[in-house]
What does this fold into?
Amino acid sequence: MSNYKTVFFTLGLLQVILGFAMIIPVVAQLIYQEFDSSFISSGIITVVFGVLFFLSNLDHDKKLNLPQAFLLTALSWLSIAIFGSLPFIFSNLNLSITDSFFESMSGITTTGSTIIQDLEIAPKSILLWRAILQWLGGIGIIVMAITLMPIMNVGGMQLFKISSNDTAEKILPKSKQISIRLIVIYSTLTLICALFYKLFGMNFFDSLTHSMTTIATGGFSNYNESIGYFDSFLIEITSMIFIVLGSIPFIAYIKFLNGDKKIFFSDTQVVAFLKVTFFSIIVLSIYLFFSKGFQNESLRSVSFNVISILTGTGYVTKDFDEWGNFPLIFFLILMFIGGCAGSTACGIKIFRVQLLYRFLLNQLKKIIYPRGIFVIKYDKNIIDDKFMSSVISFIFLYIVIFFSLTAILSLTGLDFVTSISGAATSISNVGPGLGDTIGPNGNFSSLENSSKWVLSLGMILGRLELFAILVLFIPSFWRKF
It folds into this structure.
C-alpha cells in the first residue's frame, strides 16, 4: 500500500481544498438570505474525508511514478465530482443522486451541460457553486496538461514538456513551481474579466460567476438564455475576448512574462487556432448571407457562437438550430477540433489536427516521390514515428468512443440528433447539443438516468484525454505497482 500513499495524500489535500471552497457559497447564502445546511454539511463531510486521506498518508515519499500519475489524474476528477455533488443533493432543488452527479461532473470537467431547468429562480449559492466547480476544473486541467500529461505521453502531449529532462519523479516539485504562477495568471484574468462584465452592465454576482465560467471555458450561466439574456454587444465582446484568452496555452503566458514578447504571434498552435476561428466565422457568415439574407446582428451572432462552440465553452446568444442544416454540421466539426493544448479548452485540440494534416500531406509526398525523405516538423520540433503514432491513436480512439457513445445513447431511447450531438458535446466538453431536447434552448433534465451516466462517462473521458482513464482498465498497468 505504500505505493499509493502519495496518490491518496494528494487526493486528501484536494478534498480539503474542495471542502473549504464550500464556505464561499455559505457567504452567498447569508447575503441573499437563503441559508440552509446544504453547504455546511457538504463541507464537513468533504473535509473529514480529505483529512483522513491526508493524515493517514503523511509518510509518503513525495514522488510519483508513471502509473501513479495516471491513477491520481483519474481519481482527482472522479472524487471531486462525487464530493462536489453533495451540495446539489442536500439543496432544496430536489435533485436525485444521478442529476447531482451529472451537474457536478459537468462543472468540474468544464462541460457546461445542465439539468437545472429554471436557473433564474435557483438559489444563488447553487449558481455560485456551479461557477466555482468550473473555475476549479479549468485551473485543474491546465496544471494537469502542463505538468502531468506531457510526462504521461498522452496522445502527443509530450510535445509540451517544460524541459527535455523531466522525469516522472520530478512531477511534484515541478508542479509546485509552475502551479503557483498558473494560478496567479488564471486568477488575474478572472478578475479582469469580472471587472469588464461589471463595467458593461452585469450586476456583481453575475459578473463574478460568469467571469469564472468564461475563463474556464465552461459555459455555466445563471440564466436559461445564457449570455443571450443580457442582449449586450459589449458583454458579448468581453466574453469572446476572455474565452479566447482562456483557450490559449497558459504556458505561453509564462513565456511572455519571462520575456518572450512575440510568443502569441509565433506559437504555431495559437496562430492556427486564430486562423480556424476567423475561417469558421467567414464561412458561416457567407452561408447565412446567401441563405437568410444579411442582418445587422448576423456577424455578431456567428462570431460569438463559433468561438463558444470551438473552445467548448457552450455559451449561446441565438438559437443556431434555426440557421439550417449546414451550420449544425459545421458546429459539430468545431466541437471535435476544440482549442489549444495546455488551455482550458476541450476537444481533440488544434495541435493534433495540425499534425494529422502534416502527416497526411507527408504520405501524399511519399506516393509522388517514393525515394524522397520527408520529415514532419511542428513548432521547430522533429516529429518521429512513435510520436506521430500516439497522435493518430488518440484521434482514432476519440472517433471510436464518439460513435460508441452515440450507439449507447440511442439504445437508451434518444433520437439520432440528440444521440450524436449528446455524444459529441460530452466527449468534447462543450455543453449544449443539437435538437429540441438538448439544443441551445434546452437542457438535459428530461433524459433518462442511464443517458446521464453515459454522458458523465463521456465528459471525464474527454476531459482527461481518453488514455488517462482507459489505461486503468489494462491489467498490465496494475502490475507496475
Q: What stands out?
A: The chain has a mean pLDDT of 85. The chain is about 65% helix and 0% strand. Residues 127 and 416 are 31 Å apart (CA to CA).
